[in-house]
Amino acid sequence: MRLSAIGFLIATSMVMTIGGVTIKSLVFPAETSNSYVELVPQKPLNMRAFTLCMRLATELTGEREIILFAYRTGDYDELNVWRELDGRLSFYLSGAAVMFQVPELSALHTHLCVTWDSSSGAADVYMDGKKSVTKIYKKGHTIRPGGKVILGQDPDSYLGDFESKQSFVGEIFDVNMWDYVLPENTVRDLVSGKRVPRGNVFDWETTQIKLYGNVEVINHEL
Questions:
Q1: CA distances from 215 to 1, 126, 176, 197, 199 (A)
Q2: Nearest to 109 by CA among 186, 31, 220
């Protein structure tokens, strides 16, 4: 299904079929400055900890920034996840980033999770269930509510000022978020497809999605 202007998906992102489970996937086929997807959270993003997980693939290479997830309020980038120019993964909480040297993203599907806890400052990245070194970042910080979450673009203002050279090109699906840090064994269970407590901020099975521009929605049978 292609939505060339604006659409609204209310149906669940995962359905049962005779052959198994079908999950909806978002494909961003081209570099643009106007194609993105807004995710509607189940609760305000007023958080002192989180786990954010997704499955994604991209063929973008070289010195090219790629926005993977963006949550912005009126004045701040509250939580942005990036692939940096040098291939490192990073996330930003209203200021400087924490960076991780990990294998580069590719055309093969990768299960990616980032976690952070304000009380300790512990920040981690998981790729296909393998945990990075723990870094200490933004101890005591609080992520503030009242913004918008989008996939595909980095808003330099509130849902605006997009740059095509930072846009995501590829495929993203199974986006889930919790307002607490999942244990390592639960992250590994996610990768293997086992049932775990569903995200209480975003649950891909039920999350409402708004689509703008050139975004394709396809079905994968698992």
A1: 9, 27, 19, 29, 24
A2: 220
Is 185 exposed, middle or buried, given 0-12, 13-18 or 19+ CB atoms closer than 10 A? Answer: exposed
pLDDT tens, residue by residue, 182-204: 999 999 999 998 989 999 999 99
Measured between alpha carbons, how far is 64 from 144 in angstroms, rounded to an integer? Answer: 29
Per-residue pLDDT of 19-55, as tens digits, reads 567 889 999 999 999 999 999 999 999 999 999 999 9
Per-residue HEC secondary structure of 15-48 comes to EEECCEEEEEEEEECCCCCCCEEEEECCCCCCEC
H or E element at residue 72: strand 66-72
Q: Which helix (H) or strand (E) holds 127?
A: strand 122-127
